[in-house]
Design a protein that fits this description.
- The chain is mainly beta and 426 residues long.
- Helices cover 13% and strands 42% of the residues.
- The strands form five sheets. Strands 3, 4, 6, 7, 8, 9, 11, 12, 13, 14 and 15 form an eleven-stranded antiparallel beta sheet that branches.
- Strand 20 and strand 21 form a beta hairpin.
- Helix 4 crosses helix 6.
- The two termini are 42 Å apart.
């Protein structure tokens, strides 16, 4: 009996060692999330890509707005204009009666950024222009990047204000008597009656020869319109203030105008055109340019050769091109394209645990943007079809920064094209 037991042990040991004949390899280690290691086969997917125009960018209801002009040799010139309603506090009526003596009304904006970044200066001179609108900004209307409203010709402010380079940049604009006449000795029964009379304002940052653009933080407390007045009744004099709403709470939208240079100039007249992406691909904000990449040929072939493949890790790499500007956008996000032209976020975007660190942010060490798309690529491989992936700048409504990445041609990009590097097993 003892000999028989030893024989069984020997056979089990032999089977165990036989199952471990394949040696572990470091192949694919560079592709993997540092928190998780996989044993598998490393591969690379190459596809085609092009630059397309972003013609459906919704800009109403955002918490930031871009005002001013931004210019560079690669993309050309872009302008951002803010159209916003002015409303009463707490969505109620307001009255400045015969006892209310208005001193001033000051529009203040909290600025998150000014572009381009200041170099040696400790301040910036910004030329703001504020005009009353001829038609009202509506609460129940969706506005897009190309939308605009007519102005009445009544100017509330047109002057240069100075802002310091600090963590809390606030500009203050003292509105003229054209605005004060709308509230002096006036009573408005409701917010709606005030809005229908005032209509709203168009805010521009004028280009006086040095293009500047600013991000207005509409959610910040300093972004408001404050009226300073004295309430005088007999011998009593009381200094008071009243804050009108000029914030993310009121109806507003951003208009963007782009005048492109070079190969992108086709979008100035033909918004449905596309620009070949074999050498360069362009990402710009403000209803600008996006990238559409497609790996359909690779996915079809891979599906035929590996019908039971399991994708353990997939990373979309966007190498920054040699003509890219020094200041780079913070993040690129990916959307899956459908047959009807609609798009939806790739599923990896919602997996915050595995997506962290590979969420489309720029990696200075690798000189590229890195997007983890494991679930997205697994679905493509499983279906054997790719209708395209749309790449856009995450801050395309709040930042003026843009960039250029290498195209899809391995030869034209010196062997460093846009691609998917992945690890799989069968």
């Amino acid at each position: 009996m003892r000999n028989r037991f030893l024989l069984v042990l020997s056979l089990c040991a032999a089977a165990l060692f036989g199952a471990c004949d394949e040696k572990e390899s470091d192949l694919g280690i560079e592709l993997q999330d540092p928190a998780t290691l996989y044993n598998g086969i490393a591969a690379t997917a190459y596809g085609s890509a092009c630059t397309v125009f972003d013609d459906t960018l919704l800009t109403s209801g955002q918490s930031n707005a871009l005002v001013g002009c931004y210019s560079d040799d690669v993309f050309g010139t872009s302008e951002g204009i803010l159209f916003t309603q002015i409303s009463t506090a707490n969505n109620s009526g307001v009255e400045f009666d015969e006892y209310s003596f208005i001193d001033s009304a000051v529009l203040t904006f909290s600025l998150a950024n000014v572009y381009p970044d200041a170099e040696a200066k400790s301040y910036r001179d910004l030329h703001f222009e504020v005009y009353q609108l001829a038609e009202q900004v509506m609460r129940d209307t969706a506005y897009y990047a190309a939308d605009e409203l007519a102005v009445s010709g009544t100017c509330f402010f047109d002057d240069v204000v100075r802002v310091g380079q600090s963590d809390s940049m606030v500009v203050a604009m003292k509105l003229n008597d054209n605005f004060l006449s709308l509230i002096r000795n006036r009573r408005y029964e409701s917010a709606e009656s005030f809005e229908s009379t005032v209509k709203g304002v168009r805010v521009r940052l004028v280009n006086d020869g040095t293009p500047l653009m600013a991000t207005v933080n509409l959610a910040a407390k300093p972004t408001k319109l404050t009226t300073y007045y004295k309430y005088i009744n007999g011998s009593d004099t009381i200094s008071r203030t009243y804050d009108f709403e000029v914030s993310e709470k009121v109806a507003h939208f951003n208009q963007f105008k782009n005048n492109y240079n070079g190969v992108l100039a086709t979008f100035n007249s033909n918004r449905t055109d596309s620009v070949d992406g074999s050498r360069y691909l362009y990402l710009s904000p403000m209803g600008g340019t996006n990238i559409k990449v497609n790996f359909n040929s690779f996915v079809q072939q891979f599906r035929q050769q590996h019908p039971y493949a399991v994708i353990h890790y997939a990373e979309l790499l966007l190498p920054v091109a040699d003509i890219a500007l020094a200041d780079k956008p913070d993040m690129v996000v990916a959307f899956k394209c459908f047959n009807d032209g609609s798009v939806a976020s790739v599923p990896d975007l919602f997996d915050t645990y595995t997506y962290s660190g590979f969420d489309g942010r720029y990696s200075a060490d690798k000189g590229c943007y890195r997007l983890r798309i494991t679930q997205h690529f697994q679905k493509l491989v499983k279906s054997g079809m790719d209708l395209g992936t749309l790449l856009v700048l995450n801050g395309r409504r709040s930042s003026a920064l843009r960039t250029v990445v290498n195209g899809s041609d391995t030869t034209a990009t010196s062997g460093n094209p846009i691609r998917i590097e992945f690890v799989y097993s069968e």
